Amino acid sequence: NILLVFYTNGTIHRLIVDGFHKEGAAVVQRPLYLEKDVHHSSKFHPTGRGNLRAGKSLKLILKQQGHVGWGAAEFHPGRKALKVRLVPKRFSLPSIFQQWGKGLSEAQQKEAQYLFLEFGYNAFLSNRLPFNRSIPDTRYSRCLQKTYPAQLPSISVILIFMNEALSVIQRAITSIINRTPPQLLKEIILVDDFSSHGELKARLDEMIKLYNRNYPLLLKLIRHTKRRGLAQARNIGLEATTADVVAILDAHIEVNIGWAEPILSRIQEDHTVVVSPVFDNINFNTFELEKYELAADGFDWKLVPV
Questions:
Q1: Whole-number Cα distances in Å, 1 to 5, 66, 68, 206
Q2: How many CA atoms lie within 13 A of 159 on its CB side?
Q3: What pLDDT does 255 receive?
Q4: How far apart are alpha carbons 47 and 253 in whole angstroms?
Q5: Would you say residue 69 has pLDDT above 70?
Q6: Strands (E) located in the chain
């Protein structure tokens, strides 16, 4: 079918953009944490021992979803016309699920694909993994031999998120509680930068209540009433902290055993130093931990990693 539309240039632009947002709203509204080829940085953010990143470009995602695109869209400036070929959608399971999704029904496959498009990582698998799952200890032998003072500063952990999968947030919280010495962990502050997902409303509130029954007053939630961005979210979370040291993390992380002690010990020795640990990668598809090999990193005068 050929559709001939006569509009002004501005209306044509809105037609395309609005239609694109409807088909891939979650992908357009929030940037994916992409793997090496399209990630905004080849280094991990300082967000914990394991940092979750996704690895699909928007073009490839839409192709796998069954969108061939707008077809041979043609603009005719003189006539102010746009010709669009309408292409029917078809369902096909993306290749990223072939490693682990062979036993899924078609309904489960569709759910897995929807969740991937929504979050940019394998949220279907995340929802089925234990929150307290074990992950390998990737520290080098000489790191395992180090000892740290019995008295260390207390730490507040800030988790910042916007439309993150609830299971990913719960796994981050659980790992922080289980793998941080209780005498060091003062509080976990969650900063929601105006999420729109329904599961991050009442379900998140109930989850925090359950955690605080076992760990009174440990979790605090701050909700923004409008999108403020990462920098303001960090500052707002920082203002709510009460511990000696603050760790500001993304919510798509899992900390490992011994993550806090080296940081706190180094800061206690000299509070003027900048502590920059390295981070393993949590594979966006399989959720397996991928070790970050030992390397020497630095910064230039603009504080850009080199």
A1: 13, 18, 15, 50
A2: 28
A3: 96
A4: 6
A5: no
A6: 2-6, 50-53, 74-76, 81-85, 155-161, 185-192, 219-223, 245-250, 253-254, 280-283, 289-290
Nearest Cα residue to 183 out of 211, 148, 210, 207: 148
Which residues have C-beta within 8 Å of that of residue 199, sequence separation ≥ 6? Answer: 166
- What tokens appear for 288 in the block? 């397996």
Do the beta carbons of residue 170 and residue 250 sit within 8 Å?
Answer: no
Q: Encoding tokens for residue 164?
A: 């993150």
What's the mean pLDDT in 200-225?
97
Tell me if 207 sits within 8 A of 170, measured CB to CB. yes
Phi, psi of 181 (to 5 degrees): -50, 130
Instruction: Tell whether the model's pLDDT for residue 291 goes beyond 50.
Output: yes
Which of 42-56, 114-128, 142-156, 254-268 is predicted with the least confidence, judged by mean pLDDT? 42-56
Q: Which span out of 39-43, 93-97, 203-207, 291-295 was modeled with the highest average pLDDT? A: 203-207
Can you tell me the distance from the alpha carbon of 66 to that of 92, in angstroms, rounded to the nearest whole number? 7
Q: Please state, in angstroms and as integers, the Cα–Cα distance from residue 286 to each residue in 231, 258, 292, following that order.
A: 30, 24, 17
pTM over 0.85: no
pLDDT at 303: 79
- Spatial strand order in the sheet of 155-161: 219-223, 185-192, 155-161, 245-250
Please name the residues in contact with 6: beta carbons below 8 A apart, sequence gap of 6 or more: 79, 80, 81
Tell me how far CA of residue 3 lies from CA of 37, 83, 84, 85, 250, in angstroms. Answer: 37, 6, 6, 7, 45
Q: Which residue has the tokens 């669009």?
A: 84
Extract long-range pairs of 227-232: CB within 8 Å, 24+ residues apart: 227/162, 227/193, 227/194, 228/193, 228/194, 229/193, 230/160, 230/193
Tokens encoding 171 = 């796994």
Torsion of CA 217, 245, 239, 237, to 10 degrees: -70
